[in-house]
Design goal:
Structural class: alpha/beta
Strand content: 5-15%
Number of domains: 1
Order of helices and strands: EEEHEHHHEHHHHEHHHHHH
Low-confidence stretches: 1-18, 20-45, 278-283
Shape: globular
Mean pLDDT: 78
CATH topology: Rossmann fold
Length: 319
Amino acid sequence: MAIEITSESFALARSEETLTYQEGPPGILSEFPPTEKSISRVRFWHLPRRWTRRNFSSRARELSGGDAIVISIPNSGRTWVRTFLCAYFCARYEHPFSLHPETYHDSRIPRIIYTHDLYEHYTKTRWWERVRGKFLAPPAQIRRAKIILLARDPRDAFVSHYIEMTRRTAETANELKSQAVGDVLRDPIFGIVLIVETMNAWLTEFARRPDCILVRYEDLHATPNEQFRRVLAALGETDPQARYFESALEFSRFGNMRKMEASLEYDRQLLQPGDANDPESYKVRRGKIGGYVDYLDPSDVEYANQAMSALDPRFGYLK
């Protein structure tokens, strides 16, 4: 199955403005263990084997012009990486810390685009926005920019995203907020299956590129010094300044980021809690590896583990 544009309004689009990808077979969803838990009846299609990257929306400009693109499923450590990079480059070039260093118009600071790309393409857009590819990084940008693919165990990413949607994000529909975690886990749009399929699609698209690196959330926890050096090297900073590097590591530690969020001084979408009195509504919440077991019951864990069996083993999460 493919999503294709047939409208005459797009017939004159230049051929270089779209990229088409041939996907491998999706995971066999029928092999998931049966469940008596409810599943959302929202209309849904699985990621097509062949899909076209395009962005004909006004948002294409916002997603263009970057030196690098950080692509990830939500709640995979993107704010952590962004905080570190902003702290490092702001200090290195003598600017006050900002989560939006592009406002300094300093050409020495690489412009980095942060996007959930294909995941938001299927979870946030209305039909017309999806046709235009509103949330997809444009193909020309994909071709020219370096790619940092940020990954996290889909089970942990799902649980963190569920809590964010239901406790932190005011725009979440009440119908979704009222659903139990096990029900949303099985939801065809917001559940773990789409997370796995999206990660696989990205790896298929980017794995052969020499200017793409895979950075795992779990490795950032285990060896932050090594992993953040890899990220800087991907941005051309192959010999980072030691004092700025160590300062940025310290600045982006969990405890300090939690204090930053509690101060309510930063961007509402990036680093503010839904409710300052609710610890679960914080963007910087727990950061616990394997913490999904604290929220899912045994049948949910079994379902999530079965979903994981379809994940590309190159991510390193399959035992």
